[in-house]
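sanity check this fold:
=====
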Amino acid sequence: MSATTHQPDDREAGLGPPRFTLRALLVVVTLAGCLFGLMTALGGVWSMAILMFLCLIAAHVAGNSLGTRLRDRASRRTTDELRLPSSNPAPASVKLEVAAPHSLNQRVRLNRLTPVMTAGGALAGGALGGMLSAGVYPEAGAAAVGLGVISAAVLGAFAGFAASSFFSVARAALGEALREPAISRWSQHPPR
């Protein structure tokens, strides 16, 4: 009777908690103390600006680290699966089909609707922003209302561009999904 030990499959486990050393913890606590002293000296507005900037940096670094770890784990899992023989290999009579490349991963020019919706969003945002800023602050001068119009126009342009890009990609994805299945096209006409 042979005793088999089952080792946990670490590939299926979650990412696990972050790891750090005691030295790194002390450095972070020292930097936090210096940051809090600086924030006390600068006041509330600058403290919030510094805190927001540092949160953006921390989120970027954490996202990059998490993405890299997930990518490395996925590529390691793929290479492990290619090296290890499958417990039920496919019979020789079964032909494995490969899906054709989709058109969604190709670079394409902007849709003609995108500049129109961007300009329309800028005009609508500028008009609504001007009316709103003039209505809410009737004592504001022309420069303040102009700044409100410009900032609202920029936000409207961003919203118009985002909406047109979303609809363009959604339309392309829907068209790709409604076409003939890619596997059957690929098996009938393989590339050369």
Remarks:
- Residues 44-83 form the longest helix (40 residues).
